[in-house]
Amino acid sequence: MKKRKKTYPARARHPTRQASAPFVINSGYSEGGASRTRTALKGYYPLKSSTKADVDVNLPLLRNRSTDLFYNSAVGAGAINSSRNNVIGAGLRVSPKIDYKLLGLSADQAKEWQRHAVREFNLWAESNACDLYRKNNFYDMQDIVYLSYLIDGDAWAAIKYRKPLAGCPYCTRIQLFEASRVCNPDAATAFGPVSPWAVETINPNTGNRIISGVEIDTDGAVVAYWIANRVPFDLTNPAGKLDWVRVEAFGRRSGRRNVLQISHEERPEQYRGVPYIAPAIEVLKQVSRYTSAELTAAIVKSYFTLFFTSGTGSTNNIGDVLASTYGPHERVAPEDLDGIEVGAGTLNLLPEGIDVKAIDGSRNLSTFEPFVNNLICQIGASLGIPSEVLLSRFQSSYSAARAALLQAAAVFRTRRTWFARDFCQPIYESWLAEAVAIGRIKAPGFGSDPVITKAWSNADWFGPVMGLLDPVKEVQGAALRRKYGFSTGEREAAELTGTDYDNNIDQIAIENSTWQSKGLEVPQADNTGGDSGGGETNNAE
């Protein structure tokens, strides 16, 4: 008799095996920002595409709306002007910082060279000879360029050379032109773009791609720009012919930039910039509309209008009404009250049988200011500017106001750094190369080796200073930073007062000599070494 094999249920044979795969309830963002079931996110399926689809296709509309908000919106103009005034102000000033140790110079020799370079640069920069159009000096052009970047998303300048002019021995010229002139050839007409999606084409001669006027090679590197002879869609010259010229981005022999694009891209394959206020366009427009509506309501509310209506059997003659209303010496002609108007102190006569229901003109505006301020806070957050700085209104405590200024100053300082890097420094280097070439500045080894050239070309750029809420505390802090080596007198002088430290020292020496010559005691600087920051001493035993 065979022994019967004992059988076991499947579950018993495989105790660890489950009947079905587990259902994952939560994985990463699936129940958060990537949820497809939450009510707040149903139907919310935005698409991130290429920079061409996300940026370039929408650029013309963004520029138009940005320009309109700058021209016609108080808050929009304030947002742009706030960045413009704090980043550029009256213009960024150069402060050469040559690597004198590498160049084999002493500190005194370096200081004298830097002073001479500043004098020569200002000879060119403070004259309108630096402008190809001969309209602005270099510092005025900085303001125009930065404003163009804020409104259009990027600004453009070409470095050209013309014959020297009387009073200026330099040939370097800067040509500024509109961002809309940089576009694909034959992609625009006098009446508008051929297609809003026509943002890429091919250069048949080189095979390179052209994206919104920027020609790139197979590596994606910029090699040239396509610039139209005038602004497309010019309503003053709709029949004008558009022609394009190809300008190489860098000189073939010098390697220096022929065209400067001043922009602040945020994506790896992005070749055109986005207007500064693009994230806040919708809120800015709504604030403008809401403000206009409330202003209109307040004006209408201020009107005091009287409606006269005649009952059955009464006259409809306005003259009769006037006769009973005004005396013989009060001259009011019937034609003065002809028609129905709404305005301050207006009198109207309505046709017979018309009854007028009074409308409550009261309007509570108590919520207007906090609501608008909240929206402006959102606008400021999207732009990196606290609302206090955006509105130039400081109504809070000293600490809160200073915190707002410091936060804004950090943003402005960052923008100033990259603006100087994209616009000011390349132009300074082009000018310096010419100054060395024509012998007005001595720089041995310049152009022979990239390291030596950079050592001669190093420079800092200083702009408008941040306001001092408490000058005593600010100066004491600057003195302590300099004392312990956290900063320098030159930097503190530039950031606190916008002055040149060496010039200050020279002037102080002259003034001290004047005091001594008059038999007076020279004023001495306060010793900040033992103070706690507020000028108070601690005498605790």
List the helices and strands and how they pair.
Blueprint: H1 10-13, H2 51-54, H3 59-72, H4 74-87, E1 93-96, H5 100-103, H6 107-125, H7 138-152, E2 154-161, E3 172-177, E4 188-189, E5 192-193, E6 200-202, E7 209-211, E8 214-216, E9 222-228, E10 244-248, E11 259-263, H8 281-302, E12 306-309, H9 318-325, E13 347-350, H10 368-383, H11 387-391, H12 398-437, H13 450-457, E14 459-462, H14 471-483, H15 489-496, H16 501-517
Helix pairs in contact: 3-4, 8-10
What does this structure look like?
- With 541 residues, the chain is of the alpha+beta class.
- Among the domains are: 282-368, no CATH class; 470-525, no CATH class.
- It contains 16 helices and 14 strands.
- The protein has helices at residues 10-13, 51-54, 59-72, 74-87, 100-103, 107-125, 138-152, 281-302, 318-325, 368-383, 387-391, 398-437, 450-457, 471-483, 489-496, 501-517, and strands spanning 93-96, 154-161, 172-177, 188-189, 192-193, 200-202, 209-211, 214-216, 222-228, 244-248, 259-263, 306-309, 347-350, 459-462.
- Strand 7 (209-211) and strand 8 (214-216) form a beta hairpin.
- The longest helix has 40 residues, at 398-437.
- It starts with 9 loop residues before the first helix and ends in a 24-residue tail after the last helix.
List keywords for this structure.
3-stranded antiparallel beta sheet; globular; 11% strand; alpha+beta; 541 residues; disordered C terminus; 16 helices
